[in-house]
Specification:
3 helices, mainly alpha, about 55 residues, about 0% strand, single chain
Length: about 55
Amino acid sequence: MREVLTEKDITFYIVQHIDVLGMEKGVDQVAHRLAFDKEYVRTIYCDKKADQMAV
């Protein structure tokens, strides 16, 4: 049986990959792998980073 990915899992994946690959390559690769819009991936990443900076 396959595990269901949560929103937290997806956000973690996005942030980790973009941190490693950089914004341009990371957004392209993550958007492709998850079949998400690039702008949506960028928004999730920026929102999460803003949350981390606020703490």
